[in-house]
């Protein structure tokens, strides 16, 4: 089978500063200021061409960060990601310029992707039609609601016909009718044998779409396998986690962070 994505030992470190002074000192001096925070710690997984992989995990587990690293929007701190084909990310806040109109954003994105003038003229009406933005298409994106931004992002990304489609929670902000239409479009992609990454808290949508599930916890891979195998385990985990007291949840988190530190120390 041909691989579409090969992610090897990806780590993403952010610096958390308690104030601006710390941020500036960190820029100016070799000594490190601020606290290291690892959004991803040694994440490896592979997707075959045609796979639909769902990323699941609690808030802050690293799903969006990993989606952004694969899309080439956020650089990894270490490790490597190989993507065979053109990846397109759909996320509520991704890649739109708020000062430009919807139409200008479409043209800019298509230009950046290397489309010719004629191809842009041909494709633009399809994108506008799909977005259902009507006359708002000529208004600046900063006047759009999050649902409208998501529609525009979705309309652009699915119509540029990427090899790999990465969808990060973009369906959760739109209305039901648009979500259904988008899910239909995603089904078409799947039938065409394209690769998809799907980030969502909706386990129902995961079941409908994904063949494989990557479960992240504190920036680490907790499990990776078929939907039938991993999703029930995650559902059971969520049920049990919900029953924990605040203190127990804190202790669970501390243990997770300790595991992360151990893993990172082993790697250094
Ligand atoms: N630019 C940044 N600077 C500092 N920390 C960041 C940055 N971006 C993300 N993080 C942190 O990295 C961690 C992972 O974030 P990410 O958005 O990937 O999680 P997620 O699993 O997608 O969460 P959610 O389900 O809430 O959307 C979080 O703790 C977040 O606060």
UniProtKB/TrEMBL annotation:
GO CC, one annotated term: membrane
Superkingdom to which the source organism belongs: Bacteria
Gene3D superfamilies noted in UniProt: P-loop containing nucleotide triphosphate hydrolases
UniProt keyword terms in alphabetical order: ATP-binding, Cell membrane, Membrane, Nucleotide-binding, Translocase, Transport
InterPro entries xrefs: AAA+_ATPase, ABC_transporter-like_ATP-bd, ABC_transporter-like_CS, ABC_transpr_TagH-like, Bact_Polysacc_Export_ATP-bd, P-loop_NTPase
Gene Ontology molecular function: any one: ABC-type transporter activity
Pfam families: ABC_tran (PF00005)
Domain spans labelled ABC transporter: 22-243
NCBIfam families: PRK13546.1
PANTHER family membership: TEICHOIC ACIDS EXPORT ATP-BINDING PROTEIN TAGH
Family stated for the protein in its record: Belongs to the ABC transporter superfamily.
Protein name in UniProt: Teichoic acids export ABC transporter ATP-binding subunit TagH
């Amino acid at each position: 089978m041909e691989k579409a994505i090969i992610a090897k030992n990806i780590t993403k470190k952010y610096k958390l500063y308690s104030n601006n002074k710390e941020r500036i000192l960190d820029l100016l001096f070799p000594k490190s200021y601020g606290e290291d925070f690892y959004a991803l710690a040694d994440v490896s997984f592979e997707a075959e061409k045609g796979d639909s992989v769902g990323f699941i995990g609690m808030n802050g587990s690293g799903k969006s960060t990993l989606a952004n690293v694969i899309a080439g929007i956020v650089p990894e701190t270490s490790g490597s990601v190989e993507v065979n084909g053109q990846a397109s990310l759909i996320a509520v806040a991704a890649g739109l310029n708020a000062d430009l109109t919807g139409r200008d954003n479409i043209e800019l994105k298509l230009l950046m992707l290397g489309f010719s003038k004629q191809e842009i003229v041909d494709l633009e009406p399809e994108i506008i039609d799909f977005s259902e933005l009507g006359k708002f298409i000529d208004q600046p994106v900063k006047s759009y609601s999050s649902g409208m931004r998501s529609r525009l992002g979705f309309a652009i990304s699915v119509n540029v016909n990427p090899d790999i489609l990465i969808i990060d929670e973009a369906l959760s902000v739109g209305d039901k009718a648009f979500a259904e239409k988008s899910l239909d479009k995603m089904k078409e992609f799947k039938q065409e044998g394209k690769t998809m990454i799907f980030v969502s808290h909706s386990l129902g949508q995961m079941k409908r779409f994904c063949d494989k599930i990557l479960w992240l916890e504190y920036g680490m891979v907790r499990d990776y396998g078929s939907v039938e195998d991993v999703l029930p385990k995650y559902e059971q985990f969520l049920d049990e986690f919900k029953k924990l007291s605040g203190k127990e949840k804190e202790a669970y988190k501390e243990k997770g962070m300790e595991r992360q530190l151990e893993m990172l120390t082993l790697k250094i």
